[in-house]
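To whoever picks this up:

The nightly regression suite flagged AIG2-like family protein as changed. Nothing in the input moved, so I suspect the structure step. Input below, exactly as stored in the fixture:
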Amino acid sequence: MKKETFLYFGYASNLDINTLEGRLNNPPKLKSLAVLPHHGFRFNFPNPDGSARANVVESKNESVYGLLFEVENSELAYFLKSEPGYDFVEKEILTKKGATKARVFVSKTLVDGIFPHQEYLNTIIRGGEANEIPNGYLASIINRAGKIQ
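Regenerated output under the current build:
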């Protein structure tokens, strides 16, 4: 019997598959490289320690690169606990095979002037490099990080 699943678009530390697998009981299935159109990557979601976490915001002239995963429905509650403060919303994602719907972590809590920890940024870049996210896009994430915590 096939297990029920949902599609998930990972765009920050979950680009690092080991990090994502640590947030789930059963490993997700990597489907493809993907793009979230009309959104921009930001470090504007506050961690309790005052550092920044990644977020996506609507922005008609930007796109966010990420990975499309298939995750078992049984993982949903555990997965949501791993990302407190984010809404888990459905968005249209683009892949080489065309458009599809996937769930994405998005926060409405937006704070300017906060910066990520170096370790968090390193996790994002490591995952991006391992999964063929374009170098120019990864450079833009590094530039967005600003003053590292």
